[in-house]
């Protein structure tokens, strides 16, 4: 009898300690905004954990979207990342030379934020994507394309009174690109503030925006509003300036507006030229990145083409030499790098590990023609990191 009582007491004691350990771990996880132990946490990540989850799908008024959750065939899918920006048609030339001499163009879906959204979906982190296209054949094509790649259409707006943006790309003899945009009053310039309301942002963990929508009045206001409210809600905010001088009236306006955006940004991805265009000074990529951190971001990732990439954070500077794939087309490689950066940090990777992962995503995106068509899945990224060819399959080819 005594042995039975002793055994029962032992079991009760073990159960108590196991429950206490579980409770402590659970408290630690709930205190972490991402629900996991993150080695790198931006300053604004101290998000209130006590978000009311009694109505996770929310109910909106006035057409606002009120949740980052989405029902798919009866199941609730939680999209923790929100991307916003332009979706447009890229017309790629059939050869180098000025626009006046190009005889043929290949139509491709494009827009840097759209590429980022698709890249995240390919990596298994399908985001919600707030964009606006015309209710025209090009707009319908873009909506169908995004859906094929697994990007939910809940935030993809149709504008009955505006056309879809077009961009004609040309290459000079050295391969450098030039853009001719047709986007005066187009749908992506007509984003409205507070379309994504605070209830939706409360369910999101990450907000990413590109710089093109900052170049026009209404979408500028809407984009800055989203970044400000996202930061206030505790979302990690990332930004890619994607500088297109053709879209800005002058350098001063560009610097002022992007400077306003950087005040809300945790993670910045840019090239050295883009940092210099902001008026930042430095004799190296590292010096430019450190100067950029003074404007607000906690982490600055700088892509350097064939020279690899660096990341500058409070922990110091990490660098990666890049990979050496068989390059077919570099279009969208920077956007793929952005998606890899977001996915890596969101998954809890160290900045140095994130840098290597993002570099592999970007490299894999160069192994096939086109931006979206070349974006890799996890297997494609792993094969690049292991020194193999990508071999990923474009979902559009499965039709």
Automatic annotation (TrEMBL):
UniProt keywords, alphabetically: ATP-binding, Kinase, Nucleotide-binding, Transferase
Source organism, top-level taxon: Archaea
Pfam families xref list: PfkB
Biological processes annotated in GO: fructose metabolic process
PROSITE patterns xref list: PFKB_KINASES_1
Carbohydrate kinase PfkB domain boundaries: 79-377
Residue ranges of the region described as Disordered: 380-399
GO molecular function: ATP binding; fructokinase activity
Family according to the record: Belongs to the carbohydrate kinase PfkB family.
Stated name of the protein: Fructokinase
Source species of the chain: Natronobacterium haloterrestre
């Amino acid at each position: 009898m005594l042995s039975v009582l002793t055994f029962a007491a032992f079991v009760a004691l073990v159960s108590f300690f196991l429950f206490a350990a579980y409770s402590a771990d659970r408290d630690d996880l709930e205190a972490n905004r991402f629900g996991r132990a993150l080695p790198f946490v931006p300053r604004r990540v101290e998000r209130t954990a006590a978000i009311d989850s009694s109505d996770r799908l929310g109910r909106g008024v006035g057409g606002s979207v009120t949740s980052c959750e989405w029902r798919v065939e009866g199941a609730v899918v939680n999209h923790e990342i929100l991307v916003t920006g332009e979706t447009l048609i890229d017309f790629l030339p059939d050869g180098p030379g000025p626009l006046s001499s190009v005889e043929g163009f290949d139509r491709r879906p494009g827009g840097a934020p759209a590429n980022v959204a698709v890249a995240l979906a390919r990596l298994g982190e399908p985001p919600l994507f707030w964009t606006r296209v015309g209710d025209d054949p090009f707009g319908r094509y873009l909506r169908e394309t995004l859906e094929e790649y697994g990007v939910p259409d809940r935030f993809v707006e149709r504008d009955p009174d505006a056309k879809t943006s077009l961009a004609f790309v040309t290459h000079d003899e050295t391969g450098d690109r030039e853009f001719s945009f047709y986007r005066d009053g187009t749908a992506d310039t007509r984003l409205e503030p507070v379309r994504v309301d605070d209830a939706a942002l409360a369910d999101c963990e990450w907000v990413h925006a590109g710089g093109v929508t900052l170049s026009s009045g209404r979408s500028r206001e809407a984009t800055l509003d989203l970044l400000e409210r996202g930061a206030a809600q505790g979302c990690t905010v990332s930004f890619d300036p994607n500088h297109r001088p053709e879209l800005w009236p002058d350098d001063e306006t560009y610097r002022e507006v992007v400077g306003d955006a950087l005040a809300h940004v945790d993670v910045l991805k840019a090239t050295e030229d883009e940092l210099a265009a902001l008026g930042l000074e430095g004799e190296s990529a590292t010096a430019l990145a450190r100067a950029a951190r003074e404007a607000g971001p906690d982490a600055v990732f700088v892509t350097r083409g064939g020279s690899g990439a660096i990341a500058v954070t409070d922990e110091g500077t990490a660098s990666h030499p890049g990979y050496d794939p068989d390059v077919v087309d570099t279009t969208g490689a920077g956007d793929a790098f952005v998606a890899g950066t977001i996915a890596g940090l969101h998954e809890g990777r160290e900045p140095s590990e994130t840098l290597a992962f993002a570099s592999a995503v970007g490299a894999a995106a160069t192994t096939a023609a086109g931006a979206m068509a070349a974006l890799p899945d996890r297997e494609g990224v792993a094969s690049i990191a292991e020194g193999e060819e990508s071999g990923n399959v474009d979902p559009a080819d499965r039709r």
